[in-house]
Design goal:
Blueprint (H helix, E strand, L loop, with lengths): L6 E6 L8 H14 L4 E6 L15 H9 L3 E7 L7 H9 L8 E7 L6 H13 L3 E2 L4 E3 L16 H27 L5
Parallel strand pairs: 1-2, 1-3, 3-4, 4-5, 4-6
The structure holds flavin mononucleotide.
Flavin mononucleotide binds next to loops.
Length: 188
Amino acid sequence: MNPEPLRLAVVIASVRKDRVGPSVGRWFLGRADAAGFRDVDIIDLAGLNLPDDLAGGGDSELFTKRIDSADAVVLVTPEYNRGYPGALKTAIDTALPEWRAMPIGFVSYGGVSGGLRAVEQLRSVFAELHTVTMQATVGLPYVWDQFDDTGDLREPSRANSAATTLLRQLTWWGHILRDARTAAPYNG
Ligand SMILES: Cc1cc2nc3c(=O)[nH]c(=O)nc-3n(C[C@H](O)[C@H](O)[C@H](O)COP(=O)(O)O)c2cc1C
């Protein structure tokens, strides 16, 4: 096995003014650091110009390069009307071959469902892209009550434990799939 540390990309999928996404992302990055991930690329979609017509240009090439250079990707996504943000769909569709044989994890948040309905839709989208989605679920329900004034989770134990499981699964799949892609390019 290639012992090089895995490179993790964390995509912040909400782009609204006053969004909660960065707080959730900050918490998850702390968990990734605690799990030993030191090489982390934070891809905040609010800071990128990804054209809706998927014709390239703007930050499209930069985005696809960043996905391509990752060994594992985590999407930090809210739930909007039982789905996921439109900006995230544009980002997903902007990269195509770069997703193939990539391990994907989800950290979701929202109201009653903690974003899980958005994640179930994303699992279906990512099946089409030949990715491997992680079984673990990290969901923060009623997210507006979850963080204190300093940006820390008020009751972190359950979420921290779920994040640890997700990162363990990503580590296994990240190494296995990186080695496999090196041995033979994915041709499915
Ligand atoms: C347009 C919109 C639709 C929403 N729909 C849902 C929903 O269907 N289910 C849910 O649990 N929360 C829903 N919410 C609550 C969001 O998940 C919550 O406000 C979250 O903080 C949004 O993420 P953001 O602040 O990073 O944009 C919705 C919020 C918005 C703005």
